[in-house]
Amino acid sequence: MTAAAPPATAAAAVSPLLTRLAAERATGALLRDRGTLFLEDGRIVHAESPSTPGLDVLLTTGGGLAPERWNEAVNQAGARRQVARFLVDSGGLAGGELEICHLAAIFDAAFFALSPGSGPSRFRRGATHWIGSVRSVPAAAVERETRRRRELLDAVWPYPLLDTSPVVPRPAAPGQTVTARQRLLLAQADGIRTPADLAWVLGRPAFHTLLDVRRLAAAGLVETPRTPAVPLPAEPAAPLPDWMTQAQPPDVALLRRLRDALEASL
After folding, report:
1. Cα-based distances in Å from 94 to 68, 72, 103, 204
2. Which of 10, 22, 96, 239 has the most CB atoms within 10 Å of its CB?
3. What does residue 122 show for φ and ψ, rounded to 5 degrees?
4. What is the DSSP string of 105-145?
5. Which pLDDT belongs to residue 7?
6. Residue 139 in contact with residue 43, Cβ under 8 Å?
7. DSSP 202
8. What is the DSSP string of 49-62?
9. How far apart are CA 154 and CA 223, in angstroms?
């Protein structure tokens, strides 16, 4: 009789502190170097990161909301933490469009906030965000999606240096097709803008822009930057003999004879 296989272990938590806060049904802000997650009763209600365009950019640059309407909502309802409700109630935005963009913003910012290099976590109990209530997401779902996105990037083209380097387009091969979405991105890629810069210009989630850039690199339409060579450790130099390290007065007579010989040969 063969022994039964051991049960599969659960995937390691992306953020043990987030897992614990969700179990405690905590309310507040989980702060990390690359972003902040806002929780209410243990569920994530909003997220933001300096690495990603915010909800305002997704709605205005990437969507159909006029920037003036966004500014009006923030000025009128920001202090009451009801910006989302004001946008919908004032007729400036359909509830479905707001919800879709808000979910995109949550998953996008969480991907960067929960990245391995995002530093230590801190939790500020009771903190809320001025956007107000839109829709909450289970913390476990955000962790699963964050893990899935990491794996997807590596599966497409495993060169993380692309994510922070300027995007340098390459000409398409004869007969190679480029989608409309890819053409828009390549049109803004000037060899200076990084994927994060392009996300802001296009009003798209930053993760989706990273994914587009990696797909373009895999297709040969974007340069893949070379990984910097790791310098070899320098071998210890052999000690110089004393006669080479001690200062010697110049032989003036010898120098004059050399000068005279050179002048005579000219």
Report:
1. 16, 16, 15, 19
2. 22
3. -135, 150
4. HHHHHHHHHTSTTS---EEEET---TT--S--EEHHHHHHH
5. 40
6. yes
7. H
8. -TTS--HHHHHHTS
9. 17
Give 109 or 10, the one with higher predicted confidence: 109
User: What secondary structure letter does DSSP report for 203?
Assistant: T
The answer to whether 27 and 37 are in contact (CB under 8 A) is no
DSSP state, residue 94: -
Question: Residue ranges of the alpha helices (H) in the chain?
Answer: 16-23, 55-60, 67-77, 83-89, 95-113, 139-156, 180-188, 195-202, 206-218, 242-245, 252-265
The residue count for the chain: 266
Please tell me the pTM assigned to this model.
Answer: 0.80
Type of residue found at 44: I
**24-78 pLDDT, tens digit each:** 999 999 999 999 999 999 999 999 999 999 999 999 999 989 999 999 999 999 9
- Looking at the chain, the whole-number percentage of residues with pLDDT higher than 90 is 75
Q: Sorting pLDDT into bands at 50, 70 and 90, what band is 119?
A: confident
DSSP state of 191: S
Inter-CA distances, 202 with 62, 188, 210, 227, 238, Å: 6, 8, 13, 28, 57
DSSP for residue 169: B
Rg over alpha carbons for the chain, rounded to the nearest Å, is 29
- Helices 139-156 & 16-23 angle (0-180, nearest 10): 150
- What is the average pLDDT across 93-121? 92
Kindly report the average pLDDT of the chain as a whole number: 86
d(CA 249, CA 177) in angstroms, rounded, equals 73
* pLDDT digit string, tens, across residues 183-194: 999 999 999 999
Cα–Cα nearest to 131, from 105, 112, 94:
105
Residue type, 203: G
CB contact at 8 A, 15 and 35: no
